[in-house]
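Task 17 of the worksheet. Students: predict the tertiary structure of the chain below and write it out as structure tokens. Keep your answer in the requested format; marks are given for formatting as well as content.
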Amino acid sequence: MKSTDNVLAKMAYSRQQFKDRVEEKVGGSLLEFYKAECATANGYTRWVEHWRTEVARLLAELQVVLLHEIRGFKDRRKAFAEVMSYMEGKDATYRRIAENAVTRDFQVKRLRQPTPPASRATFHEMIWKAAEEALIVD
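Model answer:
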């Protein structure tokens, strides 16, 4: 084994590290996306562009994670799908946290509208598209 191969092997993610990193990027982008969607639904615009920029940045970082060297497993798609399944169960929590952030950031006691239900499907479409772009080379 060459020394560069050894370095790459040491840097490679284990399956759990891979899933943890994917969850970080998916969770972060979901939170930012829900904040933007909730604010927009309530007519607030001040932070929306910033939140959408964060979503784009985190989706790009997700693609980097998906392309990162791995060890001990081969099926990145399966590991990614497991994370997405786990995140489905956390959706209500992410919505609640995003809505609380919007009320705090815009200093309102109550939102007129919750995060639109269709936002979930829109986000999942975005995340799977980003993932497919990265995983197609796999």
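Marker's comment: The helical segments are 3-11, 15-41, 48-67, 76-89, 91-105, 118-135. The two ends are 23 Å apart (CA to CA).
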